[in-house]
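Input chain follows. Return structure tokens only.
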Amino acid sequence: MPSTFPGRELVKKFLQENDIKSTDLAKMYGMTKQEVSDYLSGRKTNPASNQFVLKVIRDFNI
């Protein structure tokens, strides 16, 4: 699977610009804050993290 690092950066920038906290994102997707943090930071790069990043991009039209 291709790298989703550019997507992760887009999501982080979008969250910062729109004053959305990772805690809020975690609640929206039924995840823990730590999971969201790991996915967006790139600490976890498994298929689930990639799908999460792509879903956020689609859901928010980033």
